[in-house]
C-alpha cells in the first residue's frame, strides 16, 4: 500500500563519444586560461632575468635580492661575481641573486686617457664607466596588470 512498485528506467546513452568530450572541455579551458595568465608571463620574466644576469659585467651597479646595492668588481665564474658594497668591502654573490641592474657600463674606447690617468694602452683589463639612464625618473611604475601580462 505505502510501497509503490519500482519500474526499471530506460537505459542511458552509451558511454564515450561526444558526452565524454563535453566533460573534459571545462578542464581544458581552465588549463588554457591558467597557461596564458600565469605560466607564460612567468616564463617570460624568468627568461628576461636570465638574460639580464648573463650580461652583467665589471662596473655595473646592481641590486641583490637581499637589498644590497653594489658595483660588480670582478666576474669570477659563470655563476659568481664579486660585488663591492662599500669602499674596500667585497662580497661574492651568485649571479642568480642579482635582482636588478641599476646602471650598465660602457667600455672606454680609443687611446685617450680615462679618469684614472691610464694611457690608452690595452693591459688586458677592460675599464668601464657607469652610465645612468636619463629617462629613468620619467618611467611610471608598472601596474599590477602590466606585471601580470609581462608589460612594463
Keywords for this entry:
alpha+beta, six-stranded antiparallel β-sheet, 2 helices
Structure, described:
The chain has 152 residues and is an alpha+beta fold. It contains two helices and six strands, in the order αββββββα. It has a six-stranded antiparallel beta sheet with strand order 4-3-2-1-5-6, covered by helices on one side. Strand 2 and strand 3 form a beta hairpin. The radius of gyration is 30 Å and the shape is rod-shaped. About 11% of the residues have low confidence.
The H-and-E topology, N to C, reads as HEEEEEEH
The Cα radius of gyration reads: 30 Å
Total strand segments: 6
The helix content is: 25-40%
Largest sheet: 6 strands, antiparallel
- Low-confidence spans: 114-130
> By helix and strand content, what is the structural category?
alpha+beta
Strand order of the largest sheet: 4-3-2-1-5-6
N-to-C span? 76 Å
- Shape category: rod-shaped
Amino acid at each position: 500500500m505505502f510501497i509503490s512498485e519500482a519500474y526499471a528506467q530506460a537505459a542511458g546513452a552509451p558511454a564515450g563519444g561526444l558526452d565524454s568530450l563535453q566533460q573534459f572541455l571545462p578542464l581544458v579551458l581552465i588549463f588554457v586560461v591558467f597557461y596564458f595568465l600565469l605560466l607564460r608571463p612567468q616564463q617570460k620574466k624568468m627568461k628576461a632575468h636570465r638574460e639580464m644576469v648573463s650580461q652583467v659585467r665589471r662596473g655595473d651597479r646592481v641590486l641583490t635580492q637581499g637589498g644590497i646595492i653594489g658595483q660588480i668588481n670582478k666576474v669570477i665564474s659563470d655563476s659568481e661575481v664579486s660585488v663591492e658594497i662599500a669602499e674596500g668591502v667585497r662580497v661574492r654573490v651568485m649571479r642568480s641573486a642579482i635582482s636588478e641592474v641599476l646602471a650598465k657600463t660602457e667600455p672606454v674606447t680609443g687611446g685617450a686617457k680615462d679618469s684614472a690617468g691610464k694611457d690608452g694602452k690595452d693591459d688586458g683589463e677592460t675599464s668601464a664607466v657607469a652610465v645612468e639612464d636619463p629617462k629613468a625618473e620619467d618611467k611610471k611604475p608598472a601596474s599590477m596588470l602590466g606585471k601580470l601580462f609581462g608589460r612594463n
